[in-house]
Amino acid sequence: MPTTVRDAVFEVLRSHGVDRIFANPGSTEVDLLTDLPDHLDFVLALHEGSVLGMATGHAIAAGKPALALLHTTAGYGNAVGGLATARANRAPVVLLVGQQDRRHLAAAPFLVGDLAALAGSYPVSVEEPARAGDVPGAIARALHDATIHRGPAVVIIPMSDWAEPADEVRAPAARRLVVGTSADPDAVAAIAAVLRDAERPALVLGSLADDPGTWSAVAELATALDSPVWQAAYSYRMGFDQTSPLFAGHLPPGRAALRDALGEHDVVLVLGAHAFRQYLYEEGDFVGGDTRVLVVTEDADEAVHSDAELAVIAPIDAVAGALAQDLPVRTPAARDPRPTPAPLVAEPGAEIRPGDVFQALAERLPAESTYFEESPSTRRPLLAALPVRAPFGFLTAAMGGLGFAVPGAIGVKMARPERPVVAIVGDGASLYNVQALWSAQKYGVGVLFVVMSNGGYAVMDRLAHNAGATPPWPGFGEISLSTLAAGFGCPAKRIETVEELLAVLDEVVPTLGERTEPLVLDVAVTTS
Ligand SMILES: Cc1ncc(C[n+]2csc(CCOP(=O)(O)OP(=O)(O)O)c2C)c(N)n1
Ligand SMILES: [Mg+2]
Questions:
Q1: Closest ligand (CA of 404)
Q2: Ligand 1 centre from 457 Cα, in Å?
Q3: Is the confidence at residue 528, as pLDDT, over 70?
Q4: What's the pLDDT tens digit per position in 218-269?
């Protein structure tokens, strides 16, 4: 029986298989963190955005909650953008936030924080335990909340609580939680009835279809229907083999182009997305009047926000698998294989265009890799040139907040050390959580960071230019990412020509899976 609250918390963490704590601590957290038990590895990040980014990547790659710890108002405040990304990316993160000593909270001491509302509605739950003895139970419930609601669950803990005696009665938290995974037969039958009569059905995939089970169920359904498969606009994970002749591409983000893309289909089945996520506003409906839209998603909000005749809240793998069994297998139409570009050859001294970087990576990366995209001005050509071929092949920030790819890739590689992990980031994007490079080298995390160094915010410059205006923000060509990385102790190379690029990728990509040292490639690229 644990004697203190602190020991009882360690027991909760051990029993839930939590073996790491990502942290940036302060004085209110010292009593928890000194002399940690052997089953908990401590990982320091030098800014709270990096703590959240690493924990988020870890949670996604491990498929179970990651634990993070931050220091009262200033620390927690710094992490709110990362917390929003964890929520949007559906990452189960349990975040402990230190608070001042309970005994003088009423006297407004130094470092006291008004913490409960600080992150607004972004946490899936926030608990301020009423008594010290309630802390272990609150953390157990936070682990469940993060899992069920797929987002960050916050527990605020006064520093005086750790040494208090643990409760002798059991905390009100389920010892083990099982989330049901079956599909409702009536719902499957309703969808099957529509699909059976469809002449030209199409599938649209959202972001949470990239675990191996869902991936194969969706592939089976697409084959049975012989239907094209689109990836929804702004997907942050990809659920289909993009080299398959059935892959139709990424749906456009505006209504007019969406109506064109889906216009030839009488039935569109959306799996794991809402119908439809867009950016920028355009007039008209999402699809033409003759197209019926059905949605299956595990997320009640996505279901509610869908412009669909039927939205079913259910696990996608179960529904797709049941539909694939129910429906007759159609005869495949003749489809052209995806054209492969001519191999990239290096003209001596040739400068590097962004497309060269993506093609060079596409020619070398094994299918079982994970790549991060955070390269705003070249997102579309990157997606087109570097097709995802296997489950968990792709990750990006779901709501477009820069600063996730660098720490997120580190978290992914820590959770899945055998996997090649590459972060392709703009030079601007790389700077939001650049100190995470220190954590990567300190803890031996072998991510390949490919920084697209074009010396500025190219996408913002393009937007200003398109509006016929001159931007007030300057370029920052004098910033050297390779020098910065070296300053954090992280190995780095400046790359100026296609020849150099191909040589370094030939050297590092074959052993990327086993790599235990990060590498930053600071690649001088042209603005496309
Ligand atoms: C945290 C955050 N701050 C600001 C932005 C707005 N923003 C979007 S793209 C961009 C510029 C990105 O520059 P860079 O990463 O160098 O990519 P490039 O456009 O040059 O390809 C900015 C500032 C954002 N998305 N997230
Ligand atoms: Mg840039």
A1: 1
A2: 6
A3: no
A4: 999 999 999 999 999 999 999 999 999 999 999 999 999 999 999 999 999 9
- Looking at residue 303, its amino acid is A
Q: Is 80 in the pocket of ligand 1 (CB under 6 A)?
A: no
Comparing CA positions, the residue from 450, 448, 445 lying closest to residue 417 is 445
CATH 3.40.50.1220 residue ranges of the chain are: 185-326
Q: Give the number of the ligand closest to the Cα of residue 523.
A: 2
CA 480, CA 471: separation in Å to the nearest integer?
A: 22
**Strand spans (E) along 78-233:** 93-99, 125-127, 152-158, 201-205, 229-231
Q: Which ligand gives the minimal distance to the CA of 431?
A: 1
Per-residue tokens: 30: 């010292």
Residue 203 pLDDT grade (very low, low, confident, very high; cuts 50, 70, 90): very high
Q: Which CATH architecture is the domain 5-161 placed in?
A: 3-Layer(aba) Sandwich (3.40)
Cβ atoms of 201 and 264 within 8 Å: the answer is no
Report the pLDDT value the prediction gives residue 339, as an integer from 0 to 100: 84
List the structure tokens of 213.
Answer: 């089970």
Question: In Å, what is the CA distance from 282 to each residue of 18, 233, 289, 304, 307?
Answer: 46, 15, 17, 21, 15
Q: Which residue has the tokens 């083999």?
A: 241
Cβ 85 under 6 angstroms from ligand 1: no
Query: Is there a contact between 20 and 181 (Cβ–Cβ < 8 Å)?
Result: no
> Residue 168 contacts by C-beta under 8 Å, 6 or more apart in sequence?
1
Fold of 185-326: Rossmann fold (3.40.50)
Distances (CA, A) of 412 to 62, 256, 335, 386, 450: 8, 37, 36, 19, 16
Q: What is the CATH class of 354-524?
A: alpha beta
Q: Whose CA is nearest to atom 12 of ligand 1?
A: 457
Q: Taking ligand 2, which is a single-atom ion, which protein residues have CB atoms under 5 Å away?
A: 426-428, 454, 458
Atom in ligand 1 nearest the alpha carbon of residue 374: 15
Every domain of the chain with CATH number 3.40.50.970 lies at 5-161, 354-524
Residue 248 three-state SS: strand
Query: For the CA atoms of 430, 66, 519, 348, what is the dihedral angle to 10 degrees?
Result: -60
Helix (H, G, I), strand (E, B) or coil at 195: helix
Asked whether 82 lines ligand 1 (CB < 6 A), one says no
375 ligand 1 Cβ < 6 A: yes
Task: Give residue-wise pLDDT tens across range 296-318.
Answer: 999 999 999 999 999 999 999 99
Which string of DSSP letters, residue by residue, matches 41-106?
EEEE-SSHHHHHHHHHHHHHHHTS-EEEEEEHHHHHHHTHHHHHHHHHTT--EEEEEEE--GGGGG
pLDDT digits (tens, 9 = 90+) for 314-361: 999 999 999 999 999 999 999 988 888 899 998 888 999 999 999 999
- pTM value surpassing 0.85: yes
